[in-house]
Amino acid sequence: MRLLFCLAIVLLANTACNSSSKWTDKEKENSVHYFNSAKLAKQATKLLNEAGEKSNKMTVEVEKQLMKLHKTALEEAKLVDDALLDKAHPELREHYRNEYQKYLELELEYYKTRVDAGQASNTYQSMVFQNKWVDWHNANKKDIKFPKQND
After folding, report:
1. Distances from the Cα of 118 to the Cαs of 43, 58, 60, 115, 126, in angstroms?
2. Which residues contact 39 (CB under 8 A, 6 or more apart)?
3. Separation between Cα atoms, residue 51 and residue 64, nearest integer Å
4. At how many degrees (to 10) do helices 2-13 and 25-54 cross?
5. In this structure, how many other beta carbons lie within 10 angstroms of the beta carbon of residue 140?
6. Going by C-beta distance under 8 Å and a sequence separation of 6 or more, which residues neighbour residue 79?
7. Of 91, 92, 93, 120, nearest in space to 106 by CA
8. What digits encode the pLDDT tens for the residues 103-141?
9. Over the Cα atoms of the chain, what is R_g?
10. Are 49 and 81 in contact (CB under 8 A)?
11. Across 14-23, average pLDDT
C-alpha cells in the first residue's frame, strides 16, 4: 500500500507541464511548495518502507523522523495557492485539500500520538484518504498541468 503511494508521489512530482498555459513568476514560485510536499511525502514513504523491511517494530527515532517529514510536507501543502491548483486541474484543489492534505494531517497526528503517548490512532483513516488521493491522481495525472520545475 505504501509502495503504491510512493509510486503515485513520483508520478505526482513528474506531472506533465502545460505549454498552452502562461504561468506567472508567482505561480511558478508557488508551485515549488506542491513539489516540495510531494518530495517530503515520498521520503516519508521510503523511510517507512525501509524501516518495515528491517523490522516488524518501528523505533521511536524513525517515528520522530516520519513525524517531521509529514509535518513539513503538510506545511508545504498548505502554502500551495488554491488558484494554482485550480489552474493545474479543475478538480485538483478538492482532491489535494480533502484527500492528500487530510492524509498528511492524519499521518502527522498518528505519529505525534505515538511519539508523545505511545498510543495508536487514525491509521486506518489516513489510509482511506491516501487511497482516495492516489486513485484520483492516477486517473487524472495526464490532465494535471504545472509549470516546469528547474532542478
Report:
1. 23, 12, 9, 6, 18
2. 9, 13
3. 13
4. 160
5. 15
6. 30, 33
7. 120
8. 999 988 888 877 676 554 445 456 667 778 888 898 998
9. 16
10. no
11. 56
Q: Which residue has the cell 510531494?
A: 38
∠82-96-91 over CA atoms, to 5°?
75
Burial environment of residue 28 by CB neighbours within 10 A (0 to 12, 13 to 18, 19 or more)? middle
Distant-in-sequence, close-in-space partners of 11: CB < 8 Å, separation ≥ 6: 137, 138, 141
> What are the grid coordinates assigned to 64, written together?
520522530
24/147 Cα distance (integer angstroms)? 9
pTM confidence score: 0.71
* Cell numbers standing for residue 120: 495508536
Comparing C-alpha atoms, which of 117, 15, 112 is closest to residue 64? 112
